[in-house]
Amino acid sequence: MTRRIGLYPGTFDPITLGHADIIRRGAKLVDWLIIGVTTNPSKNPMFSTEERFAMVEREVENLGLGNVEVLGFNTLLVKFAQQQGASVIIRGLRAVADFEYEYQMAGMNQQLDDDVETVFLMADVSLQPIASKLVKEIALYGGEIGKFVSPAVETEVMARVEKLGRKGDL
Q1: Which residue, of 78, 99, 114, 161, has the fewest CB within 10 Å?
Q2: Which member of 4, 24, 25, 94 is catalytic?
Q3: pLDDT value at residue 43
């Protein structure tokens, strides 16, 4: 019997409690789950690829899941999925806007390889508003982010904000 491998890709800049929720739930759907940390310069990353990889690896280890590994990639998603033997791409959805983008991406990925399925997981209701972009923005303007990320991630984000300098009238 072949093992079902899933892939949950993202920039994870930074990894949030919403991401952790999708990882936990996605790990139940497959035999092996790969968290693919990728680059996306258009998202204006706060952390380097190496820093994000280490952050995700630590957070995944803290989840205590035995069937999850973290890998970095900088290639076409479908190509990476093929290289890893993944038959499922897992994507988290927070809102209708996410669905429109993800639906288009799933369609394109299906055109590239119809053996790789995309599975959408709705974010937990309490975690739906969380987005890495907003977490960074809140932190940069001096807001509290502890409700959206783990304590370790909060410490890393706040240290980076101190280095970059806060914004606004503080």
Answers
A1: 114
A2: 94
A3: 72
